[in-house]
Amino acid sequence: MAIAIRRAKEEDAEAIGRILFEVHAVHHAIRPDLFLEGKRKYDEAEVKALINRTPVLVAEDGGEVIGYAVCYLQETKGDSMAAHKTLYLDDLCVDEKSRKQGVGRRLFAAVEALARELQCYDLTLNVWEGNDAARAFYDNLGMKPLKTYLEKVL
């Protein structure tokens, strides 16, 4: 496996979309009340728009996209908090057949390098409660809890 990490191009949107179905299925299994079966977070046009406006990285093996990461640069300014930049990792997913081979770690390392390049103070993300595999993955990469987001279903 010869993994290359690079910035996504519009022509990667279809492959990213395929992987989006996989991550959505994981979330559907955890929260079927919120994540509808057989759907995905973004359609192909939305993926293309993301690629053109925010950092999107892909992992490829032999020219085939096998993983992606979508990031957002956030800037905090104001009187009550220190001004700083954060790179928010909105999605990181590796297709099912390529998991447990270091692809996710490579993608995360590239995201972290991008955050450093952009002179960010921190890198943040969220993990849905019940997604124990993702939580363990990020814990092993040094991520620590920042805040707790609570819910009460009515």
From TrEMBL:
InterPro entries given in the database record:
Acyl_CoA_acyltransferase (IPR016181), Bact_Acetyltransf (IPR050832), GNAT_dom (IPR000182)
Q: Which CDD domains match?
A: NAT_SF
User: What keywords were assigned to this record?
Assistant: Acyltransferase, Transferase
- What Gene Ontology terms describe what this protein does at the molecular function level? acyltransferase activity, transferring groups other than amino-acyl groups
Keyword field contains Chaperone = no
Matches recorded under PROSITE patterns: GNAT
Q: Which residues form the N-acetyltransferase domain?
A: 3-154
* Tree of life domain: Bacteria
Q: What is this protein called?
A: GNAT family N-acetyltransferase
Organism the protein comes from: Candidatus Gallimonas gallistercoris
